[in-house]
Amino acid sequence: MLTVTFKLLGSLALLMFGMKSMSEALQKMAGPQLRHVLGAMTTNRFTGALTGMSVTAAVQSSTATTVMTVSFVNAGLLTLAQAISVIMGANIGTTLTAWIMSAGMSFNVSNLSFVAFFVGIILIYQKRLRYLGDFLFGLAFLIFALAILRQTGQDMRLGENQAVLDFFASFAPDSFLTTLIFLLLGGVLTFCVQSSAAVMAITMILCSSGALPIYQGIALVMGENIGTTITSNLAALSANTQARRAALSHMLFNVFGVVWILFVFRPFIDMVCGWVGYDVSLTKESVDSATFLANAGKLSFVLAAFHTCFNLANTMLLIWFIPQIERLVCWVIKPKSVDEEDEFRLHFITAGLMKTPELSVLEAQKEIESFAERMHRMFNMVRDL
Known about the structure:
Layout: H1 2-40, H2 45-59, H3 62-74, H4 80-93, H5 96-106, H6 110-123, H7 130-156, H8 162-169, H9 176-193, H10 196-208, H11 214-235, H12 241-263, H13 265-276, H14 289-296, H15 299-318, H16 322-332, H17 361-384
Helix pairs in contact: 1-2, 1-3, 1-7, 2-4, 3-4, 3-12, 4-12, 4-15, 4-16, 5-7, 5-10, 5-15, 6-7, 7-10, 9-11, 10-11, 11-12, 11-15, 12-15, 12-16, 13-15
């Protein structure tokens, strides 16, 4: 059992590393183009949301999209309202990761990882194509980790482990308190491991094995949506006012979405299950083991579909209230009082949010322009003495 546990933890670490490597390589390849797209395609709230969705799906990182968006707000190229619409779209774009993971959990794609490794090692030594090689290496690690997770989930036989089944059975399935407990658990786990993808992978393993009921699994996914915003809010604590407002709007957006979905919790989930073809009524007692496991195998796609439908519905609902959200975050986070020493500090570069240097060129450019302006004023003051 200890070997299987370390195999699970190691594959989760490999998954997180693969996601990070793939995302950073994509950002390095497309950094300047993405900045141009963000600046040119946010003319209104709808194009802003579409841009946020497209950019996040391209770089596989909602954090990178948020950082770029905040840098544009700092530079005066985007308003806070436009930034909020981009962040809403980023929430939809990040659900593509869940679909990739569900496919990796459902099908044996481990052989593709070796192809990606081979092509990646060739490209990584080519100066012009090294970032593409880095991307393929990240993709290979991601696919390989999903293959290991899939096999580990089968080896653990969680659906036949009576202790695991009894633990989840101890929670009343129809209780609102149970939903809140799993929602809180999902948020805490995501905050602790700093990766919603890792928690999503664990949820898919538990649900696909038949150990975790779908309603509790969905509650974990909802908690992940809130937990992933806590990280960005903590990172923005040392940043400027606009960055903290953008991070807070992200949290409010997800929290409000969870609140309204709780009122239509079971009907919404049943609707998504119907679209995917999962039969909620099937239990271990009502059908044979093979039929039950075949039905449970669809749950990874149910989780991905719910993640997408939830964020899509939440965006379509709240996109009309962006001015109200902007006023709320501006009311909660007041601008800092101007100090004489603040004039000689960095205003655009925020260390807590800088992830990829290629995406921080704009902040550096604005700081240089700001200091050049101060030097010009100082030179004029010296001439007047």
